[in-house]
Amino acid sequence: MKYIRKSAERGKANFGWLDSKHSFSFGNYYDKNHMGVSVLRVINDDMVMPGQGFGEHGHRDMEIISYVIEGALQHEDSTGNSYKVPAGDVQRMSAGRGVMHSEFNASKEDKVKFLQIWIQPNVTGIKPSYEQKTIRQQGQLTSLVNPNGDNGALSINQDASLSRLVLKKGEDITLNTEQRIGYLHIIKGQLNADGEQFTAGDGFAVEPEQTLEIKADSGIEALWFDLPMT
């Protein structure tokens, strides 16, 4: 692995109602060394205060995934969708030729913590679309998003896949990139990857034709991105 993104080094934005940490350049945070990996453009680790949120704003030609860790989001958009997204659910919005939407903390009492993920699509100008599912963990690695929505996952307009990795303390797994690029973002826990220690908020890329050996030092939850070579 050549690209490592430590949690403490991420970009930060705090507006009172929002505490956000940016793995890659976003908004007012810009670092030419952290512009994304392959078609993965954004991983924002967001904490939104009770009753607060992102007012109506627009997106275009981007695949936007929300992964709720704690609490629940309330999603509204200009295509008529209105959904509550609880912890454990995965949401995908394809902005296509343009969509307006808002996302608020669904609770007036509790904070909501979620990951906002942007992936560049391989087609532009399409009709906006929305999907949301509760996807139960099946084994160590469970597909959440893939190009065709196979195995109960959400679909995406890109040759990219997103899986949830869950390991108990002491468990291990081997991941292979083949002719692809991998990226792992750790949500909870601590792990050892190829002899290096990582913890919640850390991320790292894995180059093509590499084998990654992971061992859980505690119970872990992470997201594994399988990305095209660009």
Features:
230 residues, mainly beta, Jelly Rolls, seven-stranded antiparallel beta sheet, globular, Pirin_N_dom, Quercetinase_C
Can you walk through the features of this model?
- This protein has 230 residues and is an all-beta fold.
- The protein has a single domain (4-227), classed as Jelly Rolls, CATH 2.60.120.
- It is 0% helix and 55% strand.
- It has strands at residues 4-5, 11-14, 18-22, 40-48, 53-59, 63-70, 72-77, 82-86, 89-94, 99-105, 112-119, 129-134, 141-146, 154-155, 161-167, 172-176, 181-188, 190-193, 196-199, 203-206, 211-216, 220-227.
- Strand 2 (11-14) and strand 3 form a beta hairpin.
- It is globular, with a radius of gyration of 17 Å.
- The mean pLDDT is 95.
- This is Pirin family protein.
* Topology-level CATH name: Jelly Rolls
**Order of strands side by side in the largest beta sheet?**
1-20-17-22-15-13-14
DSSP helix count? 0
Number of DSSP strand runs: 22
CATH class: Mainly Beta
In CATH, what is the homologous superfamily?
Jelly Rolls
Instruction: Tell me the distance between the termini.
Output: 17 Å
Q: H/E element string?
A: EEEEEEEEEEEEEEEEEEEEEE
Radius of gyration: 17 Å
Q: CATH architecture, please?
A: Sandwich
Cofactor: Fe cation
Family: Belongs to the pirin family.
InterPro entries: Pirin (IPR012093), Pirin_N_dom (IPR003829), Quercetinase_C (IPR041602), RmlC-like_jellyroll (IPR014710), RmlC_Cupin_sf (IPR011051)
Protein name: Pirin family protein
